[in-house]
Design a protein that fits this description.
12 strands; TIM Barrel; binds S-adenosylmethionine; binds iron/sulfur cluster; twelve-stranded mixed sheet; alpha/beta; 10 helices; globular
Length: 329
């Protein structure tokens, strides 16, 4: 059985982008109100008293857009100071990163994954939503600021959508030639914006690898991460290219993670809502942390049996309407 030691913590369900693959075009999303969010103290208490004692050691902060969370740097510092924390990382769209990267690094954030779906301003805006002024430049400056601040290697996540950004796969892979960046291509999942999903809206990773192989060749990467990406390298490149192939090569069986939503629900699997537990209400009604630990241990026990199989997506069983930003991607 897989050791489950990795917790993804959603800090906020709001986002300043509306990526087409994440948020339905016409969605009127209901956002959580501030009192419904776990507070910084509650998050730290849950980690110290509940998750660390039950074996969790790696934590990723996400959202929605985590950089929208007030007092984020203080929260990062408080988590980084917990002695048992082995890895503290964050996934962000980088739009607000330019002014925060150095402070986050100083506060103890170890690693950053940044979503960047296009190098072309127009395509980028077409994917993230049009806000009048392009958001590509500030995003790119955020990425460079992160690199300058010391986040090395830097991971860039690209969700590949046929006909929208798949023609840029080679340009995005080329970023790794001169920089020690890890560019990871993610197969689009039919979550949130189901209408975008049909046979043509995701491209199997192997097809992308073939395109890259044809241009430069591709070797198995020297460093395989401990996450779901298969890592490769263009010969002579400084960085790597990774492929997250949850649609074509379901890796649910080796899943090592659980997810905590911004309002304190712990779910054993990205898509399992029926077995989730409400840690925030329990904490606020003074349920002892010992009882909370038992609840988490129970979820750890049942997790292998309740993992939702992504390969069921698109079947009746696989209809799923919440967005990644709501779940906490
Ligand atoms: N806002 C941050 C960001 O975009 O990096 C963090 C949250 S976002 C939900 C986390 C990751 O989920 C991003 O890398 C995004 O590309 C990915 N994601 C969202 N919807 C997806 C989908 N339908 N299929 C595949 N990946 C998706
Ligand atoms: Fe895009 Fe991330 Fe926001 Fe979703 S949560 S809309 S992936 S930036």
């Amino acid at each position: 059985m897989n050791k489950v030691d990795y917790l993804r913590i959603s800090l906020i369900d709001r986002c300043n982008f509306r990526c087409r693959y994440c948020v339905p075009d016409d969605a009127e999303l209901q956002y959580l109100l501030t009192p419904e969010l776990l507070t910084n103290d509650e998050i730290v208490t849950l980690l110290r008293e509940v998750f660390i004692p039950t074996g969790f050691r790696k934590f990723r902060l996400t959202g929605g857009e985590p950089l929208l969370r007030p007092n984020l740097v203080e929260l990062v510092a408080a988590i980084a100071q917990l002695p048992e924390v082995e890895d503290l990382s964050m996934t962000t769209n980088a739009f607000l990163l330019e002014n925060l990267a150095a402070d986050l690094y100083e506060a103890g954030l170890n690693r950053l994954n940044i979503s960047l779906d296009s190098l072309n301003q127009e395509t980028f805006d077409q994917i993230i939503g049009n806000y009048g002024k392009s958001r590509w430049e500030p995003t790119w400056r955020g990425i460079l600021a992160a690199y300058d601040a010391g986040f090395n290697p830097l991971k860039l996540n690209v969700v590949v959508i046929p006909g929208v950004n798949d023609h840029e796969v080679l340009d995005l892979a080329a970023l790794t030639l001169e920089r020690n960046w890890h560019v990871r291509f993610i197969e689009f999942m039919p979550i949130g914006n189901g209408e975008l999903f049909d046979e043509r809206t995701w491209i199997p990773s192997e097809e992308l690898r073939q395109r890259i192989r044809k241009k430069w060749g591709l070797t198995e990467g020297q460093i395989q991460g401990n996450g779901p990406a298969d890592v490769f390298q263009i010969p002579g490149a400084k960085g790597t290219v990774g492929f997250i192939s949850q649609m074509s090569e379901c890796f649910c069986d080796r899943c090592n993670r659980m997810r905590l939503s911004a309002d304190g629900w712990l779910r054993p699997c990205l898509l399992n809502e029926s077995d989730q537990i409400d840690l925030k209400s329990a904490l606020r009604s003074n349920v002892s942390t010992e009882v909370l630990r038992d609840k988490v241990k129970y979820l750890l026990e049942i997790k292998p049996d309740v993992n939702f199989k992504l390969r069921d997506m698109g079947t009746d069983q696989g209809q799923y309407s919440r967005t990644m930003s709501q779940i906490g991607g």
